[in-house]
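So, can you check these tokens?
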Amino acid sequence: MPSRFRFTIAARDGAARTGAIEMRRGTIRTPAFMPVGTAATVKAMKPETVRAAGADIILGNTYHLMLRPGAERVARLGGLHAFMNWGRPILTDSGGYQVMSLSELRKLTEEGVEFASHIDGSRHMLTPERSMEIQRLLGSDIVMAFDECPRADRPFAEIEASMEMSMRWARRSRHAFDAGGVHAEGAALFGIQQGALDEGLRRRSADALTAIGFDGYAIGGLAVGEGQAAMFATLDFAPAMLPEGAPRYLMGVGKPDDLVGAVERGVDMFDCVLPTRSGRNGQAFTWTGPLNLRNARHAEDASPLDPRCGCAVCATYSRAYLHHLVKAGEILGAMLMSEHNIAFYQQLMQAMRDAIGEGRLAAFTTEFRRDYRT
């Protein structure tokens, strides 16, 4: 049986790395992009289609699954993998991001966060211990420590206090995860570095997490409105602060050009709702940049979305047909556009893995930036 969790770096090219995470439910090739299945579904896609597009792992969300259908119910039905028919690894976000994004509905204390459900207003308490319990009930393979994620434009003292509390929550998450019995024996726990854009705070956070000890380390608190230049400036120092032999996961990122720049800076894992959300809204990602299929210029275009793309959508359907589906609001349009976008993201990751392995990442990124127009 494969190991519980083993990360191997196969090749390096500058700060970039390519390798693999081996887990009991399968191998995750890195750099990896994880499609987001927030509520036990990658929106508008069947699990087998997600896998056929090239995804090795998907993401689920503790907060949303806690509210609906409920972690205890999922556990009674055999766990999240059986519930949604996804037999490969699943990473579950801890719910920490919702501490920020749903700030109007929360009460934050040292103990944790009390939420008012965005669905029905019911009150729920989410603590590091409860987050670990929910992720254990879901049966996820990679569990995220519970944290708070303040916006980068908050005052320094507020960001510092938040980071320090997140580090205390990280230790509580570690203890609660380790008490998880059989699940803890088969799963992995990732800590989350915080500190917004400040190098000193990022260093203190990384040191605290390393002292606790995790299987992998996420870079949190980015892609929350600070802009690409500020994100890249932070990634110029943040990944290198984390243990070299563990995977580095940039949470909530991002656009294709974000992924390329982050891989150059040493990031191994990503997730983002963008490919499916954009697909549902008529935007396709291609090797020459995003396309708006609502645009009338596609109405009689018999060419594929992207001649360089090898996905089933590009092999079968024309821009004209996809334009029609999108304009008509047909469900099939959302399905096909999402399938293409997820496949494109996976092709982009494979291209970067190949380039790193062959020592030609700089040439690849030069070509990518030449052709890709935002």
Summary: The longest strand covers residues 6-13. The longest helix spans residues 331-357.
